[in-house]
Amino acid sequence: STSFNWQDPLNLASQLTEEEQAIQETANSYCQKRMLPRVLEAYRAEDYDKQILVEMGELGLLGATIKGYGCAGVSNVASGLITREVERVDSGYRSGMSVQSSLVMGGINEFGTQEQKDRFLPDMAKGKLLGCFGLTEPNHGSDPGSMETTAKPHTSKKGYLSISGSKTWITNSPIADVMLVWAKLQETGKIRGFLIERADCPPGTLETPAIKNKNGLRASLTGMIQLDECPVPEENMFPDVEGLRGPFSCLNNARYGIAWGTIGALEDCIARTREYALERKQFKNNPIAKYQLVQKKLADATTDAAYGLLAALQVGRLKEEGKAAPEMISMIKRQNCDRALYNARVLQEVFGGNAVSDEYGIGRHVANLFVTQTYEGQSDIHSLILGRAITGIQGFV
Ligand code: TGC
Ligand code: FAD
């Protein structure tokens, strides 16, 4: 049909396979029925129910693009649709899923030994074993290449390395069983990936304190990873990958997911604002949705959401064929995070004083979307990645 649907303005659905549509419906139904009812309390209490990852595991939503190991093996577009549905509820819930699926399971699947894959992936797919990804350090965020965390041969334990250093702003670190930590091998000065298992760390060698009192992403746990001569078996190191290519390859998948997810959050802002504007009356008993300035806000946001989804779809299809350049992912990560944040802030105005009440949900999305613009490469960093690709000149240093 040629009719216009404000919830899918450019008919994204027409570009999806039946399987992708079915996966989106499963994810939507779980997220709306089971996650949405918990988010307000979780956000207020700054709490994350780790049972959510078990439930997602039961539905096959974790590490969904991975083939084998109990994972669903779905398309990159289907995985983007899952992310969109989760973030429609809350960016923090998507964050918990992203680190588990894209950053840790994805990293193990791409760079791990067969033994590491067999040992970690099946339980991670079930949400029984929780992961976190430690790249950022207190003194090195946008520039992880300058990291200080170091791995050197252990002085007393044969076959072990000793890792010291600290990572900060790490999603899920307080509850993670396995931490994918990036550290420089002292011998070569090259960055390598290590799977650190909490249960095997002697007392005093690993601490994961939570970072509390956040003003965004409160339904997600964030913490540090402090390592003090922590012994890690050599077989827990990724065998071949060296340098920033390791962590950035994991980030390509997570950044791609965020491009879909943030539009899910924006779509929720649009739906909430539309409903509010149709009900709220001011001046001569008119719904405020009648006023042109309000309509423009909705038109702008709906347009940006529709464009953002089609761009993410295109990159997803290219990714499936192995043709997605990292710069394409920078482009959609930056654009979708920025437009989602900008429009959510504008739509918040439509709620008047009620925007300040957490019951209306819009303020939560605005605070969360600020974080999405910051992590996995702050938007200005993605501008520089694109600028370098356009001009051939790096503008970072
Ligand atoms: P540069 O010279 O650009 O590259 C160094 C090496 O890395 C390779 N590389 C990539 N490989 C695969 N995919 C990519 N996207 C890649 N980008 C770079 C590159 O080919 C090179 O390889 P080699 O073999 O030649 O050594 O490195 P640089 O030091 O100049 O980097 C600059 C910059 C700004 C691009 C980079 O450092 C950057 O992206 N910074 C942002 C940091 C960031 O994204 N941190 C994310 C932390 S994790 C997180 O936030 C998780 S939140 C999760 C949640 O809760 O949802
Ligand atoms: P900085 O690098 O200090 O940047 C500060 C500002 O300076 C930014 O606006 C930046 O764009 C700008 N800037 C820096 N360099 C340049 C330059 N050359 N040119 C122009 N501008 C520049 N990290 C992980 O490793 N794992 C996680 O799971 C994780 N989860 C997170 C969860 C939350 C809630 C948050 C807030 C962060 C998380 N992070 C995680 C960290 C995140 O990736 C970093 O915060 C981010 O990469 C930015 O680093 P920074 O905070 O050190 O900021």
From TrEMBL:
Keywords per UniProt: FAD, Flavoprotein, Mitochondrion, Oxidoreductase, Transit peptide
Subcellular location field: Mitochondrion matrix
Cofactor entry: FAD
Known EC number: 1.3.8.6
UniProt domain Acyl-CoA dehydrogenase/oxidase C-terminal: residue ranges: 243-390
GO cellular component: mitochondrial inner membrane; mitochondrial matrix
Pathway: Amino-acid metabolism; tryptophan metabolism; Amino-acid metabolism; lysine degradation
Residue intervals of the Acyl-CoA oxidase/dehydrogenase middle domain: 132-230
Entry's family note: Belongs to the acyl-CoA dehydrogenase family.
Protein name: glutaryl-CoA dehydrogenase (ETF)
Originating species: Gomphillus americanus
Phylogenetic placement of the source organism: Eukaryota, Fungi, Dikarya, Ascomycota, Pezizomycotina
